[in-house]
């Protein structure tokens, strides 16, 4: 059970939707969707928009898991297989409080999958694999986490998942399905992980935003 794949990898073992892999809005690039970071995905890697500054790949587990290991597959835009860099793991159960796992991990961009075992397991619902940046060339990454679901999560629905409202969803809820009490700003700005926000008129009470899920 310790080595159980959580479901980010590509293929039949993938149990988590594409929207469960994401990144910060300033590091999002439609040419390299975060779901390209699924381990074993053929011919695809995830890469950040900017590699001269810190970046992370965020993994949304939806339910709480005990995490025992992380597998990372990385390469550079050239054949520099000796390039080594540290990465760190931060994690949260609710987005409000974040914890940092110590120590960091040493990782080589040699186009080989490296499995890094945590000395002590962590309990998390959201995990960020963070890199310091400052690279001279573009890094490419794929990841998977290994662990087991916690008892408190197993009592809930076993397959909750994002519905496609995030701005990073490649095939999600369309803009015309998002309506609001006013059109003072575009309703699509209400999408999660958008660099903008939807806002109604200040003087109007009881404002709302509605999403048609289509089913």
From TrEMBL:
A Pfam entry, by short name: F5_F8_type_C
Matches recorded under InterPro entries: FA58C (IPR000421), Galactose-bd-like_sf (IPR008979)
Source domain of life: Eukaryota
SUPFAM superfamilies given in the database record: Galactose-binding domain-like
Protein name (database record): Uncharacterized protein
